[in-house]
Amino acid sequence: MQLQSLKPNVALTVKKYGYFIFLMPLVMPALSFYWGNLSGYHDFFAFLTLLVVYILVPVLDLLLGKDPVNPSEEDVPNLSQEKFYRYLALSCLPLYFICLFSTGYLLITWTELSILGQIGFVLSMGVVGGIIAINVGHEMIHKNTKLEKVAGGLLYSLVSYAGFIVEHIYGHHVHVSTPEDASSSRYKQSLYNFLPKAYVGNFKNAWKIQKKRLNKKGLGLLSSQNELIWYNLASVVAACLMGLFFTLLGSDFLLGAGFFLAQSVVAFTLLEVINYIEHYGLHREIQSNGKYQRVNIEHSWNSNYFLTNMFLFQLQRHSDHHAYAARRYQVLRHHPESPQLPFGYATMFVIALVPPLWMAIMNPKVEAYYQHAQEPVTA
Question: What predicted TM-score, i.e. pTM, was given to this entire model?
Answer without folding.
Answer: 0.93
